[in-house]
Design brief:
Number of domains: 2
Order of helices and strands: EEEHHHHHHHHHHHHHHHH
Distance between the termini: 34 Å
Bound molecules: acetyl coenzyme *A
Largest sheet: 3 strands, antiparallel
Number of strands: 3
CATH class of the largest domain: Mainly Alpha
Strand content: under 5%
Structural class: mainly alpha
Helix content: 55-70%
Number of helices: 16
CATH topology of the largest domain: Citrate Synthase, domain 1
Amino acid sequence: MSSIHKGLAGVVVDTTGVSMVNPDTNSLTYRGYPVQDLAGKCRFEEVAYLLWYGELPTPAQLAAQNEAERAHRALPRDLVLTLLSLPETAHPMDTLRTAVSVLGAHDPHEDDNGPEANRAKALRLFAALPAVVALTQRRRHGLLPLAPRDDLGYAENFLYMTLGEVPEPVIVRAFETSLVLYAEHSFNASTFTSRVVTSTLSDLYSAVTAAIGALKGPLHGGANEAVMATFEEIGTADNAEAWLTKALAEKRKIMGFGHRVYKKGDSRVPTMRLALQEIAELRAGHHLLDLYEALARAMHDAKGLHPNLDYPAGPAYHLIGFDTPVFTPIFVAARITGWTAHIAEQLADNSLIRPSSAYNGPTERVVGLVG
Ligand code: ACO
């Protein structure tokens, strides 16, 4: 039997120029730039441009992109009606997946896989997804959707449409940091899903819809929501150690810890941990920070495992005012940039992704009468 690479662990399936994850140095670069530098010095719109075009934008290029993005922030009326017709109990990731599907069905260029057409689609999804997240959260509170404001940057408008006001600059900046950190991470499960779908020469909306499905799972993006559920279950920092001992004895996976690639710590965590601290200081969230540290310490002592990005992002989103079920949709709104950069890269040098399997079912037999 040929060797099996369960979960494709350690298998290098292709090259990519979008980002580089280096587990030995705990580093992550987007198109060569360290992600911490991008988070500290760039707007999220600039990082999106970098992922799509390979270079940071000039002021004129950024202004042109911003104008196009602002023009596509509002959702088409038909889409709003479709989303409002979904059950109120629908998971926001289902709402988002539906929204992308509907936007595809309405796009007369859906099947045009040329680079320009796909860049236009990527920009439209980038512009529209915050409105879907905002509509979903507001509906949960019985509130009507708000029209986007084109006098605001991407992150400010995202927060305004969801929360009804633009929060303090520290909060905006911390939120934007999370978007930059979530934007891209090489061949993770959802990005690889988008590349598999693209490799069949299907359309960008189908690839993104499939990627949303992959990201929803708690072993991937769904972990940021699960972290919050864990924090609620533990309650306070002094319960963390006893809670963890019991959870590990029950063989539970502790959400927000561990990573397939980083075994010595997720390169994005220190930056997001700092952002969480800034939010906690403004929003009286020290109890969450204490719990964060207590559980991280206990997990390190018990299993030697480090937090991943979802661990600080969950409590940060909670303190900003997002409902837990929209945490993973926010991850989608950020990762749409990385996914669509990978879709373009896949199409530029496509080869159908179709691995092999080793059969372990019954040996060949003859069809006969049953009974
Ligand atoms: N809680 C408890 N034990 C864990 C955890 C965890 N979070 N993560 C890994 N382990 C243990 C496993 O049980 C296993 O132990 P064993 O060898 O005694 O059986 C060992 O560490 C290796 O773990 P694997 O699951 O084999 O590692 P893998 O690389 O396949 O998994 C994964 C990585 C899926 C992220 C895993 O660490 C996990 O389930 N974490 C929780 C979910 C999570 O936080 N996901 C977010 C990922 S990052 C992101 O999407 C931004």
